[in-house]
Each structure stands twice: as C-alpha cells, then as structure tokens.
Amino acid sequence: MAITRVLPTALLALATVATLSAQTTFMPRYTALNNGSGGQASTVLADLNGDGTPDLIKAPYTAIAAGDFNGDGKDDVFFYDYAGGSQLFYVGYGNGSGGFTYKPVPNLPGLVTGEQSLVLAQTADINSDGRPDVVVAYFLAGYVYVRAYINTGTTFTLTSALFSYKAPNGSIGGATGDFTPPVQLLLGDYDADGHADFALRILAGSQQDNLWILYGDGQGHITAKAVYSNRQSEFAFAAADMNDDGRTDLVGTNSDGSIHTFQSAVGRAFTESVISASFLQNTVYTSYPPVIADFDGNGYKDIGYIARALNSGTNQLGLRAVYQTPTHAWTLGGFTAVDTFQSYFGDNPFFTLVAADYTKDAKPDVILFATTDANTHPDSADFLINTGTHAVGSCAAPAIGIHVCSPGASSASPVKFSFSATSFYPLRKMEVWVDGVKKSETYHVFANQGFSDVSLALSAGKHTVSFFSGTYDGGVTKKTITVTVP
Predict the structure, then answer these.
(1) Which end of the chain is more exposed for a tag (fewer CB within 10 A), N or C?
(2) What is d(CA 270, CA 276) in angstroms, rounded to the nearest whole number?
(3) The pTM is what?
C-alpha cells in the first residue's frame, strides 16, 4: 500500500512557535496497587459495577478483553492465566458488583503453562450475530498469529488462524531494554464500512517495523493489507478518528521523538503527517503509545503522550499534549509531572496510559500505571484529572445506555438535540434520526463514551426522534422520544 507523506503548511508554521499554549491542566491523584505488577493486569477498560466509570481489575489472571459476553447487561472479562496448567484461558462472567463466575474456554494452540506469552485481544462482533467475539494476536515459535474466539452465547469456539506473520529472525521486539510494544492490535473501522477492522503492528527487530490493516467483512473473514513493511521506524500507536470523517486513523510516537498521524482515506489508503521532535521540544518519552481525546473541549481530538520534563536531569516524567485547532494545526501544551524514576539502562517507568472520564464531568482524564521504578508512588495507578473549564458535551453521560438532555416534549425550531452515551465497548459515532431519516452523524467520542450537541430545523408538527450510539462493529444502542414543534 502506498503512503503519502506530508508535512502540512500549518504545521510547518507552528514549528517556529516557541511559546507553550496549554488549553487545559491536569491534577495528579495516586492509588496504590500493591500487587507487585504495577498495574500490568489492570489496563483493560471494564465497568464491572455498571456505574459508567471504568474500573481497575485485580484478579488472579491477566485481563485481556472485556464485554457483555452473555447478554445480561453486566460487563464480563476475558482472562489469560499463563500458569494455569492445562487450562490457560477463562471468561469471567461479571455479577455486576465486581465478582466473577469463571468458565474455561479453549486454549490457544501451542501455548505452554508457566511460560508467559504475549497475548493481545480486542472485543468486537466480527460475524454480525449480535454477540461480541474476542480477536487475539499472539506470538508463538517465531510467528505472530491472529485468531478469533467466536461467542456462541454459552461458550467460545476458536477459529483457525485468520492471519500469520513469520518473524525473519524468529523473534519480535526491539533492542534489549527497549519497551516499545513488540505487537499491537488496535480496533477500528478504518474504511468506514460499518465492520470492525484491526490494525496489526509488529516490530521484528530493532527498527524493522511492519503495519497491516486487517479489514473485516462482518462475516468473520479478514482481508490483510500492508500499510508499510520493514520500515526503519519504531512506532507505538493509538487508534482514533482524528478528523471526524468516519474512518479510524492511527497516531504513533516514534523512536526519534516525533509523533506521526496515519490518516485513513478512501480506497483503504493512508496519508502520513509528522509533528517533529523539535516542535515537541524533544520531550516525547518513546516506547509508549499516545492517548487520544478532546482534552480541551474545543471539538477536536488532541494527542497526549508520556513526556520528559524539559530539564532531563530531574528524571521527571509525566503527561504532555499537543492540541488540535479548528484548522487541524497543533499547539503544544504544558507538562504535568507524575513522578521521578530510577535512571538506569532498561528501566520501565510505566506499563501503559489510558484516557477515560473518571470524575463524570464529561472531560477526559488520563490514567498511567507506574511500575516499581517510580520513586515517590511506585506500583500505582496515577490518575491525571482534567481540570479544564470546557467539557466535551453539554449532556452528562449516563451509567450505561443513552441519556437525552434535550429537547423536551415540545420545542421550537431549530431544535437543539443534546445527548450522550456510555457503552461497554469503544464508541465510534453518535446519530440523530427524525421520522426515520438520519439528520446528524457525529464522532465526538473517547473510550466508551460519546457526546452530541446539534441543532436541526424541523417543520411544525409531531416528530419521532431516535438517538443512536454506534460501536466499531456496527452495534448500536437506541433511544426514541416524541417531539412536537409548534
């Protein structure tokens, strides 16, 4: 697949700006995990008690995916127990209050107990039967395989390999002490066809980067298309729709300290643009994917990343962001310190970072999972609470489902429609339909929440209005009201 590399004129102009322009601030709060894993088993977004706020999972196994697998309205979790003997994989059916009933599911072939393997997973209904499946990528004997656990309603069946890649030298990952993820599996709808797709990135040796998009057809099949192969780069990606065109894009930090955006286009092509390391004041702490959300509430998604303090001698790490403007240019935000870390070869400050709304104020916060290398708050969940003044929507998100704030039963035209949604799954879009006709489609979402504020001109009379929130696999949640326009 050909890639067009561009450096937008607006970005070139911004590269000469020396002043910081932060649109919001973050306030650190710390939660000790005390489990010896630094939160490694707690990075799956799951709402175990149905209150609309993501929870931290502490369980005997590693959580790799979540979803309402049995359709009871409660979040369930898919687990990998690498030391489980003859049984390595389980689904934990949630009871709605944080507890699980465990049921074994088939093991991935070739995985051996006691030898922890790289296993990644995403939840999506890949065969359009209304039940969420689990797609896994894993490394075994020099190969990376992608398979699917198909949800039958009562159990899971394992498919044959949907995709495989043989590492040229039989191993994956970069150099020793390099914590760039060797494999990433990122859910999205990269061609906007309503079916779940997966970006698969594999680092097969230092600076030997590979990226494919596995396009789903909604019938359980995939078509793999390479974006690049054996590239001299080392990306750590996040997936999001950066320009609200309905197609999922990829944003990655690179080993040279830059940030690259791979914008999906018609025909399953991508256009690449670069935010240079010099514009970012050489503060990107590479090896970690960014987090994508509208942090300042201006209607455009921003890029947060793990950053070094400008004075690198302090060993201080934290969060920084570049903010997207209405002209799709970038401004550089300030630095929020999280902790200082031991400075030695092979140190691993964090396991990952995640954006979600932890304070229910419709503003995306960020959580980082610190390792035992942190000096002040080791082995902790470090919440960076968004203290900005602008929420991403005017209608507060519900626990689970759709919340309509306006209009009421009667409203003059133009009618303001304000609604929000919270799902067990990452949301892709929000829609408003009037009398069976789609009138609005927006993509103001982050993580498992979405927000929409639109005004529509309606004729006098009674109208049936339906509100939809949609996921990457075409699943929808719906709420309908009646509005009379005088």
Answers:
(1) C
(2) 19
(3) 0.92
CA distance 420 to 76: 23
Residue 42 backbone phi and psi in degrees, to 5: -125, 20
Give Cα separations from 7 to 10, 31, 244, 270, 330 (angstroms): 8, 41, 20, 14, 12
pLDDT at residue 135 is higher than 80: yes
- Provide CB contacts within 8 A for 466, sequence distance 6+: 432, 433, 478, 479, 480
Cβ 217 vs Cβ 268: under 8 Å: no
Residue 407, preceding bond cis, omega within 30 degrees? yes
Q: Which two tokens stand for residue 224?
A: 């793999």
pLDDT digits 0-9 by tens, 384-407: 999 999 999 999 999 999 999 999
Q: How far apart are CA 268 and CA 42, in angstroms?
A: 34
Beta strand 437-442 pairing with 445-446 = unpaired
Question: What does the pLDDT read at residue 176?
Answer: 63
pLDDT in tens, 294-334: 999 999 999 999 999 886 567 899 999 999 999 999 999 99
- Residue type, position 250, single letter: L
Percent of the chain predicted with pLDDT > 90: 78
How far apart are alpha carbons 431 and 445 in whole angstroms? 12
For residues 126 and 218, the answer to whether their CB atoms sit within 8 Å is yes
- How confident is the model over 378-388, as a mean pLDDT? 93
Residue located via tokens 């935000």: 333
Work out the pLDDT band at 16, boundaries 50, 70, 90.
very low
Q: How far is CA 371 from CA 38, 94, 207, 349, 378, in A?
A: 4, 28, 26, 6, 6
Residues 6+ apart with CB under 8 A from 344: none
CB atoms within 10 A of CB 179: 17
Nearest to 287 by CA among 152, 167, 135, 176: 176
Q: What are phi and psi of 18, to 5 degrees?
A: -100, -20
Instruction: Please report the pLDDT score of residue 35 as a whole number.
Output: 55
Counting residues of the chain whose pLDDT is more than 70, the rounded percentage is 91
Give the DSSP H or E segment for 10: helix 9-14
